[in-house]
Write a structure and sequence with these properties.
Blueprint lengths: L1 H7 L20 H12 L15 E4 L2 E5 L10 H12 L3 H7 L4 H10 L9 E8 L5 H14 L17 H15 E2 L7 E2 L2 E9 L4 E9 L4 H4 L9 H6 L36 H14 L4 H17 L4 E4 L2 E4 L4 H11 L3 H9 E3 L4 E3 L2 H30 L8 E11 L9 H32 L12 H8 L6 H9 L9 H11 L5 E3 L2 H15 L10 E6 L2 E6 L3 H5 L5 H8 L4 H6 L11 H18 L1 E8 L12 H10 L2 H10 L3 E4 H8 L13 H15 L3 H4 E3 L3 E4 L3 H28 L2 H22 L6 H27 L4 H7 L1 H4 L2 H51 L12 H31 L17 H34 L1 H16 L1 H9 L3 H23 L3 H61 L1 H22 L5 H24 L7 H181 L10 E5 L10 E2 L8 H10 L8 E6 L4 E6 L4 H8 L1 E3 L9 E3 L1
Parallel strand pairs: 2-16, 3-12, 3-16, 21-22
Antiparallel strand pairs: 1-2, 4-5, 6-7, 6-12, 8-9, 10-11, 13-14, 14-15, 17-19, 18-19, 20-23, 22-23, 24-25
Helix pairs in contact: 3-5, 5-6, 6-7, 7-10, 7-14, 11-12, 11-14, 13-21, 15-16, 15-23, 17-18, 26-27, 30-31, 30-34, 31-34, 34-35, 34-36, 35-36, 37-40, 38-39, 39-40, 40-43, 41-42
Length: 1425
């Protein structure tokens, strides 16, 4: 399947992986998948700002979060600080490019969406993904960021509300995981409920309150835990806690029904659960979250009551059932914890009471009643925990709200082995979220473009709203409404296959609904068996199919009615309300029998409310992705990842995001923000037309390809992703440049420029040392030498500076002059600091390259091991699922070899490779480059060991395949018959589906029986042991397929007959209705009842309107009454409209209108009756005509009978004569047939002898060939091994020689560099005195320097306005003059002066053509030649 999928995708182009996939050079599925995989394989940076995260990437507003399956250095206060500072500074675009996508950045965008005048007051982040994708952790990290980041609030205010505790908010979020999370097959801490966490802020954007809304707790898990999973964490934690004895829970998890299935289940990594420590953490969390000791004990008592209640069993007693004596102790304990009488609750569980009678329940019904109590009780406990948290986190007094950020942690799209009621609502939620996502991504964009007059190429594609309506619509009823009808059915309601029959009848014509037939069911279940290793499959007649946006899903209807009840029957509710414990009674208070809704109806209302919240504000999306099913870090399962990206809607948005305009700014705001980019950048008032023209000018000047990247609407500028962030970066650069220039000039005026440079170098050197120390590089000679050298010079200059400051009293002007010699060494010091940084980076790069080589090697090993594991599982699948004692020796050998290979490969991938990665590369020496060929030879050896086991499996499987080939040769004819029968069943699939939809379950039963026979034949074929058994199974299958076809054709005839009868009945009913209506209307017209009828309608209209006006409120009962009255009003208005009657018309007009309307209606009915009458007359005429024809035919028949008798007599005589001749011929033919049969038998015997001889010769030849092949292979392997060893020895020798030559060359170059460095230092020391600027080396060159042209540098008058200032600036390094001479203008002397170094005097005078006057001293005049 994976190879076929790869063939359908375009080939991925080679490119550097990017975090923002909008920037991919070509948008297609292959590139997206390759980019995610490449990014996931990168090394995670240890601190912000040094690279992108390896697990986060984006597509438009969607954040893709890959589960790393391990802890990463990706969170903490440093990361929080960086992202919050970027948000406060308005540089989200910079953070996006520099820090990369992150869950912190996503929630920071939501936070910044609350700021500004036009900010949306509600921001939401939708976090979804399948189980194990990391939704819970992502939600927790986002919430922690919002709480930790408040200290960086730009407002500077602090939240002082005593009722708000940020630690409590975080702890409450974790606390719900103990009550609502459980271990599943794919996740150790899977959320079994959805939640919408809302953090409310005041106007200063400080945290004000916290609120949680939860959705659809998985109730079925409470009483039925899937195989290999655990119940909710709190159950397992409570039975091992120090409260177990007090609550009657002695014996551990293995002693109770709710915890026994998961008592031996371990975590994904194989380690056991530490429930004792987790319970202690839960108690501490409850205490910090504001739960008192009494509150905690009440909750634990209710949870313990659920455990004890599920221990209660029932026994038959006559026509009733009672609580079994063996479980009476559990019943007493549960009732004691709940504060109710055991006898009263026992009667409520074993009887059903109505308004007229009390009926006894049987054992199964009582067990179902007990499970319902346990599920409702625990769900109410969970509701109470959430309610307490919300109440505790609401402050006593609240000011005006500034906004809300909601984090929606919702279950992803699911297609499980068996999809039940939970999956129905989970996938409905994802359908609705996808619709919201589509609305936000496309419809809003299109509407904005239309309003602004901008052409858009967006194509949102088909809407999934019809699929949502399939579940939610009330009229005609959808799935949820049909379930509600069965729940409220007093007769008990249909469930299972009966409920599916109702679905099929009512919904079969819906575009997103599918009727399941045995053939389609088998195809789906066969695929699931390969993926999930399923043991049992559901029946087709208890399943229905829905076509979701992510694919087709088959749902199994089991206990839909019972699990849809959101409340208990009145008898049990009364018992719970009468509890002596207030907290138990409160859990069941407020229920009204008339207002009870089903689970589905309540959930739909919650879902629509949630959708409204998501659509009323800004919404961002985070799609969590599980990289591989085994949760092994570093491995990406391409097929699984692709499915999740498709289900998450990521693929569909790529090209549309790239073609759209992601950023838009109003013209006035664009002008306000970017006018600084213009020349002169002085803010001026401008008209709207001038503002638009200015915006066009800015875009044309600073944006390349502005015609395609920017569009101008009526009120806003539209820009594609990246344009706005680039413009803002330009503004920041210009502001920063001006600020830097001002600071620099101020420091120059104060003489602090060199001091500032020195402080910067000191800070930079400290960062270099800290970086080297943190990575352990200070022991490396190169790093230690370069850092020490720079620190020595730094300490010398700083000591001198401190001494001068103390001596001169802090006068920085005098300090700067006296420090001129030391400040001249700053450029050299900067070079030393940079050399130290380069050396640290060089060593770090060496280590990183070595670790990357190791990571690449281990990644290849893991990939090869994973491929081998898939190969072993594929070979294992050829063995049939037959008991071991029924398999042959060959199968046992294959299974044994597969088990050994799988165990070795899993140990290699899960434990040994992570250990090798932690040990680091082999032979890593940071003093030199890493050139080791194999960074981890042990990994290669381990992989080789595993490959030997895999080869053994392949050899065993090859032998098995030969046996299967022989089996196939013998059963060739039967296999052809099997394929023909199966094709026949597939061809009948469409007709069978239609028949099942019409209620003909016999067709489905026949098809299912045939498919079962086919499955038996396939099992025998896979075993490839019993040829005769396979032939018999195929024959049975062929007979079953033929019978299924016969039943289908009979059902089609029955359906056609039934439809004809229904049509005839409909026509007869229409005729009778027309006659009855005619009589009624004539009677009304004769007796004057028509006017009275219209008056009664008007009175009913007035009463209904009055009742509708008096109704108010938002409760469900009021809403139902309002809807009923509205429907009544519409009915009355339609009747009045038909009669043409209104109270505003005059009576005579009314009567005329009535007369016309009635005449028209009577005429219509009369036409119908006349038509029926004509049809009846035609039938009578037809019958008379047929009678005449029959009489004529009877007369003709009598004549033909007489003629036939004469002919029969003649023919009988001729027949006897022919029989005599045929008898003689048959006697001759029988003799010839006997001779022919003898010849055929002889030839058949000779043919069998020849075939046996040929088979023996063929078998002997095969053995000879196999021996020859083995000899040739062994000889070739030996030769290849010898050649490989020779080449390896030669290669090793060449490598040693190259390494020695490279080391010698490096030593020689290092010695040369040291010598050159010493020579330069000596030369610098010799020329130091010759390179000093002083006042003696200056000459006046007059008031004009035009004659010099561009041959000499002229110093800036703002920096140097005198000769002494110039000499000081040149000596201190403020001004750099590489030529050694320059010109400065002296304002005091109003003349230009030539300034030169002592070693450049002659060169300066010669190059400028200057001749000194005789006896000219310093500062003397000179003449220019």
């Amino acid at each position: 399947l994976e190879s076929r999928m790869a063939e359908m995708l375009p080939r991925s182009l080679a490119h550097t992986c990017v975090a923002n996939m909008d920037e991919l050079p070509e948008l297609n599925v292959a590139n997206v998948l390759a980019n995610v995989e490449a990014l996931f394989g990168r090394k995670q940076p240890s601190k912000p700002g040094v690279g992108w995260s390896s697990i986060y990437s984006t597509v438009g507003p969607v954040l893709i979060a890959m589960n790393p399956c391990c802890e990463l250095p990706l969170y903490g206060k440093d990361w929080v600080k960086e992202f919050r500072q970027a948000g406060n500074a308005g540089t989200i675009g910079w953070a996006w490019k520099t820090l990369g996508p992150h869950c912190y950045l996503t929630v920071e965008q939501a936070y910044q969406g609350l700021r500004g005048e036009n900010a949306l007051r509600r921001q939401s982040v939708v976090i979804c993904g399948e189980s194990g994708a990391g939704k819970t952790v992502t939600n927790r990290k986002m919430l922690e960021y919002l709480l930790d980041a408040e200290q960086h609030n730009p407002s500077g205010t602090v939240n002082t509300s005593p009722s708000m505790d940020q630690k409590s908010i975080a702890q409450c979020n974790v606390l719900l995981e103990h009550f609502g999370n459980a271990k599943t097959l794919r996740n150790d801490n899977s959320s079994r409920f959805g939640k919408y966490s809302q953090l409310h802020f005041d106007r200063s954007l400080n945290t004000q309150s916290f609120e949680i809304e939860h959705y659809l707790l998985e109730r079925s898990r409470i009483v039925s835990v899937p195989h290999g999973e655990r119940n909710y964490h709190i159950f397992h934690q409570l039975v091992v806690s120090d409260l177990a004895a007090e609550l009657g829970l002695q014996g551990g998890p293995g002693a109770f029904e709710l915890t026994r299935p998961g008592s031996q289940v371990r975590q994904v990594d194989g380690s056991p659960f530490d429930d004792v420590a987790e319970f202690g953490e839960a108690c501490r969390g409850m205490e910090e979250a504001g739960f008192s000791q009494d509150n905690r004990m009440e909750l634990f008592q209710a949870v313990a009551a659920v455990i004890h209640l599920c221990e209660v069993k029932f026994a038959e007693s006559g026509d009733a059932c009672v609580v079994d004596d063996a479980s009476s102790a559990s019943m007493d304990t549960a009732c004691g914890l709940l504060g109710v009488e055991a006898a009263v609750l026992g009667r409520a569980l074993t009887t059903k009471k109505t308004s007229m009678f009390t009926a006894n329940l049987n054992k199964n019904e009582a067990t179902g009643q007990r499970d319902a109590v346990a599920k409702v009780l625990y769900s109410r406990v969970f509701d109470a925990v959430v309610s307490h948290i919300n109440k505790m986190l609401q402050p006593a007094t609240t000011g005006p709200k500034g906004g809300t950020i909601g984090l929606l942690d919702i279950f992803g799209f699911e297609d499980m082995p068996i999809n039940g009621l939970e999956q129905v609502y989970i996938n409905l939620t994802n359908e609705r979220i996808q619709n919201v996502f589509t609305s936000i991504m496309f419809e809003r964009e299109i509407q904005i473009y239309r309003e602004e007059g901008i052409e858009s190429a967006f194509d949102p594609g088909p809407s999934n709203w019809p699929c949502i309506e399939l579940f939610t619509v009330r009229s005609p009823p959808g799935i949820v409404a049909l379930i509600a009808d069965e729940v409220t059915n007093k007769a008990g309601g249909k469930d299972g296959a009966s409920l599916v029959a109702v679905f099929n009848k009512r919904l079969k014509d819906h575009s997103h609904y599918g009727v399941v037939n045995p053939t389609s069911m088998k195809r789906v279940m066969d695929a699931k068996k390969q993926k999930w290793n399923m043991q049992t499959v559901p029946r087709y007649d208890e399943c229905f199919q829905v076509r979701h946006y992510a694919g087709e899903v088959i749902y199994t209807v089991r206990d839909f009615v019972g699990r849809s009840r959101d409340s208990l029957n009145e008898q049990v509710t009364t018992v719970m309300r009468s509890s002596s414990k207030a907290h138990v009674s409160a859990l069941f208070s407020g229920e009204d029998e008339g207002t009870k809704k089903t689970v589905g109806e309540v959930f739909i209302r919650q879902l629509e409310q949630l959708s409204g919240k998501l659509q009323e504000g800004g919404t961002l999306f985070t799609r969590c992705v599980k990289p591989n099913p085994r949760m092994i870090r570093g491995i990406v399962d391409r097929q699984l990842t692709l499915e999740q990206l498709v289900n998450g809607g990521v693929i569909s948005v790529l090209e549309i995001r790239r073609s759209g305009f992601a950023d838009r700014v109003e013209y006035d705001k664009f002008y306000e923000e970017f006018y600084i980019l213009t020349v002169g950048w002085k803010r001026q008032e401008a008209s709207p037309s001038e503002v638009k023209e200015f915006c066009r000018t800015i875009v044309a000047t600073f944006v390349r390809d502005a015609g395609t990247l920017v569009a101008f609407g009526k009120t806003r500028v539209f820009m594609k992703a990246g344009v706005l962030s680039d413009l803002r970066a330009m503004v920041n650069f210009r502001v920063s440049w001006f600020a830097t220039m001002l600071q620099r000039r101020w420091r120059i005026r104060r003489g602090l420029e060199n001091v500032h440079k020195l402080e910067q170098l000191q800070e930079r050197l400290k960062e270099v040392r800290d970086d080297a120390t943190s990575h352990g590089f200070m022991d490396v000679e190169l790093v230690m030498r370069s850092v020490s050298h720079a620190e020595t010079d730094m300490d010398e200059i700083l000591n001198a500076l401190n001494t001068k400051r103390a001596t001169l009293g802090g006068d920085m002007n005098r300090v700067s002059v006296s420090m001129a010699d030391y400040f001249a060494r700053i450029p050299r010091l900067a070079k030393l600091v940079e050399e130290a940084a380069v050396s640290v980076k060089k060593v770090g790069d060496r280590k990183q390259r070595a670790e990357e080589v190791l990571a690449q090697k281990l990644s290849r090993v893991k990939l090869e091991a994973s491929t081998m594991l898939n190969r072993v599982e594929q070979l294992e699948s050829i063995c049939p699922s037959t008991p071991a004692e029924e398999l042959g020796t060959e199968y046992e050998q294959v299974l044994t070899a597969c088990a050994k290979a799988k165990e070795r490969l899993k140990r290699l991938v899960e434990s040994e490779i992570p250990e090798l990665q932690a040990q680091g590369p082999v032979g890593m020496d940071l003093r030199q480059e890493y050139h080791v060929e194999d960074p981890c030879p042990r990994a290669s050896e381990m992989l080789k060991e595993a490959s030997v086991l895999v080869k053994a499996v392949e050899q065993q499987a090859n032998g098995l395949q030969r046996a299967r080939f022989a089996f196939a040769e013998k059963a060739k004819e039967a296999q052809r018959d099997f394929l023909v029968a199966r094709s026949k069943l597939e061809a009948l699939q469409h007709d069978a589906q239609a028949a099942i939809g019409d209620g003909c379950n016999a067709v489905g039963a026949a098809m299912e029986a045939a498919m079962e026979k086919g499955d038996i034949a396939e099992q025998v074929q896979r075993a490839a042991i019993d040829v005769d058994g396979y032939i018999a199974a195929v024959a049975t299958f062929v007979e079953a397929a033929t019978e299924a076809e016969r039943v289908l054709r009979t059902a089609e005839e029955f359906i056609a007959q039934r439809r004809a009868e229904e049509e005839e009945a409909r026509r007869e009913a229409a005729r009778l209705e027309a006659l009855k209506l005619r009589e009624v209307m004539m009677s009304l017209s004769q007796h004057g009842e028509l006017d009275r009828h219209c008056s009664a309608l008007l009175r009913a209209l007035a009463l209904a309107s009055q009742e509708l006006d008096t109704r108010s409120g938002d409760d469900e009962q009021t809403q139902e009454v309002v809807e009923r009255l509205q429907r009544r009003l519409l009915t009355i208005e339609e009747d009045l409209k038909y009669l043409g009657f209104t109270d505003a018309d005059p009576p005579e007009v009314v009567r005329e209108r009535q007369k016309v309307a009635l005449l028209a209606r009577w005429k219509k009915r009369a036409d119908e009756v006349r038509l029926l009458t004509l049809e009846a007359a035609a039938e009578q005429a037809k019958e008379a005509l047929l009678l005449q024809v029959a009489e004529k035919e009877l007369d003709c028949h009598d004549r033909m009978t007489k003629l036939s008798m004469d002919n029969d007599r003649i023919l009988e005589e001729q027949r006897k004569e022919m029989l005599d001749k045929m008898a003689a011929l048959e006697a001759q033919a029988s003799e010839k047939d006997q001779q022919y049969e003898d010849d055929v038998a002889k030839l058949k015997a000779e043919k069998e002898q020849a075939a046996e001889l040929q088979q023996q010769m063929f078998a002997e030849r095969i053995k000879e060939v196999e021996v020859e092949i083995a000899d040739v292979r062994s000889h070739a392997d030996a030769e290849l091994e010898k050649q490989r060893q020779e080449l390896q020895d030669k290669l090793d020798a060449e490598k040693r020689e190259a390494a020695e030559a490279w080391q010698r060359t490096a030593q020689e170059k290092e010695q040369q560099l040291e010598g050159e460095k010493a020579r330069r230092m000596s030369l610098a020391a010799m020329t130091k005195e010759a390179r000093i600027w002083n006042l003696e080396c200056t000459h006046n060159v007059g008031s004009s320097i035009e004659v010099f042209g561009n041959r000499v540098m002229l110093l800036d008058e703002e920096i140097c306005n005198s000769v002494s200032n110039a000499v000081e600036a040149l000596n201190t390094g403020v001004i750099d003059c590489p030529e050694g001479f320059c010109i400065v203008f002296s304002k005091k002397q109003e003349s230009y002066y030539l300034v030169y170094r002592q070693d450049k005097g002659k060169e300066a005078l010669t190059s400028l053509g200057i001749e000194l006057k005789e006896n000219a001293g310093p500062n003397a005049d000179c003449c220019v030649s």
